[in-house]
Amino acid sequence: MDAERTARIAELAATAGRVWAENHDGAALQAFLKEIGCDGVDAVMVTRQVVGCSLGEAQEMFLTAPCRAAELASHNAFMEGLERAQGDL
């Protein structure tokens, strides 16, 4: 990541850390991040920093949050497409 993106993620993590500290609720954290326009990979990276978890755990928290249903559907459609493409080889 470039320095600007690293700084932005650190700033967002500092802000989001207060939300996590209040209730340790992954869905609430994701709702907050979505509300402030933090989506996709950036939201996963912020989650990882705030929660102090692995990349896989942060991705799971991102994709299973109710407010991220559209992202989960997109992820699942992409994965299904990859699986179908492997069958075509």
Q: Brief overview, please?
A:
This protein has 89 residues and is mainly α. It has helices at residues 3-23, 26-35, 40-51, 55-64, 69-88.
Explain what you see.
Helix content is 82%, strand content 0%. With 89 residues, the protein is mainly α. The longest helix has 21 residues, at 3-23.
How does the SSE layout of this entry go?
Blueprint: H1 3-23, H2 26-35, H3 40-51, H4 55-64, H5 69-88
Q: In this structure, how is the largest beta sheet organized?
A: none
Which regions have little confidence, pLDDT < 50, spanning 5+ residues?
none
- As a percent range, the share of strand residues is under 5%
**Element-by-element helix/strand order:** HHHHH
Distance between the termini: 34 Å
Instruction: Categorize the overall geometry.
Output: globular
Radius of gyration: 14 Å
Nearest-integer average pLDDT: 93
The helix content, as a percent range, equals: over 70%
The count of DSSP E runs of length 2 or more, i.e. the number of strands, is 0
Q: Count of helices? A: 5
Structural class: mainly alpha
List the keywords:
mainly alpha, globular, single chain, about 80% helix, about 90 residues
